[in-house]
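We emphasize that the prediction below concerns an isolated chain of 210 residues; any contacts that depend on oligomerization or on bound cofactors are therefore not represented. The input was used exactly as deposited, without trimming of termini.
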Amino acid sequence: MNTPSHYTSRFLKISSRIRLSAVLVVMFIVGCSSASTALTYYVLHSVDEPLAKPSKEYTYLKLDRFVMPEYLKQRGLVYQTSETNVHISTTHLWAEPLDVGLKKSLKKAISNYGVYLVDDEQYHASKTIHVALHITDFISRFDGEVLLSGEFVVLGSASPPDHKANWIIPFDIRVALQHDGFSASIEAMRESLMQLASQIADNIKVTEKE
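Result of the prediction step, given as a token string:
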């Protein structure tokens, strides 16, 4: 015959199992939640490449206007999944606004061509070439390449509001991805900005000589 103590012991064992099961379920849910919300942050500019110091031989450049499309103003990295659709990631994010990273990358890239991108504090109107940059697309695509397109306008060395457009130069730069993943996309983005920097440098140096 079972005694009251027997039933009490059995009840305690069942209660312990229920509590253990509940704890395991909670741990599983928390683990899944943590895994699904893990965030990865990226920078567009390379932190390993030093910025070349300006010299008297440098051409000085100032971006008077910088425009990029609304879909690039998101914090999530963007991937074009088809001719009509884009995906904005919620877990792969830029560590800083893309326009900030893009200007940093362009500043480093264009310094390799003897051009120094100045900010307002460094601005010297008498020897600075003014440029407006309009980005139409800057995106990793489903066909295995990064597309950087738009146009830049060389405004000459006159101070605003006396700017006159010397040239309007469209660009359509495509760089193949070396492998899959967002890291590969960013490497290709950096290469596309190097090519854009080369185009801008070539054109503003022509303006400087005129």
